[in-house]
Amino acid sequence: MPRDPSPAASPLVGPRLLPGALVLRRDARTLQVGTAPGVVVRDRPGLRRVLRLLDGSLPLGHLSRLVARDVPEFTDDLTGTVGRLVAAGAVTLPGAPAEPRVAVRHDGSSAGLAALIAPAFGATALEPDVEVVLSAGEPGRSAFEVLATAGVPHLPVVLLERSVRLGPFVVPGVTPCLGCLDALLTAYDPAWSVLVPQFERPRTVTVALPHGLLLRAAAEAVAQVETLLAGGRPATTGHALWLGPGQDDADLRPVPFASECPCGLLAR
Ligand SMILES: [Zn+2]
User: Fold this and answer.
1) pLDDT tens track for 192-204
2) CA torsion angle 183 184 185 190 (round to 10)
3) Lowest-confidence range among 2-16, 52-66, 108-122, 152-166?
4) Containing domain of residue 243, as a range?
5) How far, in Å, is the centroid of ligand 1 from the Cα of 217?
6) Percent of the chain scored above 70 by pLDDT?
7) What pLDDT score does 7 carry?
8) What's the total number of domains in the chain?
9) Residues 48 and 134 in one domain
10) What is the pLDDT of residue 195?
11) What is the reported pLDDT for 10?
12) How remote is the CA of residue 120 from the centroid of ligand 1, in Å?
């Protein structure tokens, strides 16, 4: 399965005004940065123009030269001003660039869903902490054996005919796997075990799910991964979540360890 080649966002190299914050005037002598709750700043000549330059794209040295050239009315010490704005919480400084931690993989037919999910995680990690594995139609199970053996937590997301299934989110050796789901489905329909090997065949599947359902699935997949990265337990560990076909349909069902599945032996 190809990995989504989504480009990384431009790296921040300099001070940046709090993202999303408006610069507003409170009165003749004070400005306010942001509204929730907002940082009050004493106004000085040129300050508003200087604030507009704080977009994270310029290191402080470059910024000083730019301000000296283009905002001559600003006569304060820029380093001191930026320091006070940082202390007040109105400006952030670049930290160490975050390492990409997530890979989003997809088959050709689920590229559209990958394009919705991948930007949430920035650049694709080459040695990811987590993989999101997308497929249109039931995926071949062998791809997941590699991830289980490598100990990489992975979230299968499957585009079905009228719904999307997320999970079980597998933390190898800790939580039930796709084989456990197959055992559960085989308990309901013994022929399921005959179908499973056929999922390995390469194919192209037409995806005609509503865009709203794909957006829901993408948002849910991102939330599940972020919960795991934050040290929490996503709802889809030990469970599978079916979204759709109705707008609000969400069916979360437990997937217990199957006695015959090797993953359960590892976890005990
Ligand atoms: Zn299992």
Assistant:
1) 999 999 999 988 9
2) 60
3) 2-16
4) 102-267
5) 23
6) 93
7) 43
8) 2
9) no
10) 97
11) 62
12) 29
Residue 211 has pLDDT above 60, yes or no: yes
CA of 264 to the centre of ligand 1 (A): 6
pLDDT at residue 227 is higher than 50: yes
Kindly give the distance from the C-alpha atom of residue 29 to the centroid of ligand 1, in angstroms, as a whole number.
65
Query: What pLDDT was estimated at residue 117?
Result: 96
Residues with CB under 5 A from ligand 1 (ion): 177, 179-180, 261, 263
Residue 263 CA to ligand 1 center (angstroms) comes to 4
pTM as predicted: 0.74
Residue 2 lies in a domain: no
Can the peptide bond before residue 11 be classed as cis, meaning omega within 30 degrees of 0? no
Q: How far is the CA of 255 from the centre of ligand 1 (A)?
A: 9
245-267 exposure pattern, b = at least 16 Cβ within 10 A, e = fewer: eeeeeeeeeebebbeebebbeee
Q: What are phi and psi of 16, to 5 degrees?
A: -135, 130
Do 74 and 205 fall into the same domain?
no
- C-alpha 231 to ligand 1 mean position (Å): 22
Cα of 116 vs centre of ligand 1, distance in Å, is 29
Ligand 1 mean position, distance from CA 207 (Å): 28
CA of 258 to the centre of ligand 1 (A): 6
**pLDDT-above-90 percentage for the chain:** 78
Residue 6 has pLDDT above 50, yes or no: no
Distance of CA 223 from the midpoint of ligand 1 (Å) = 23
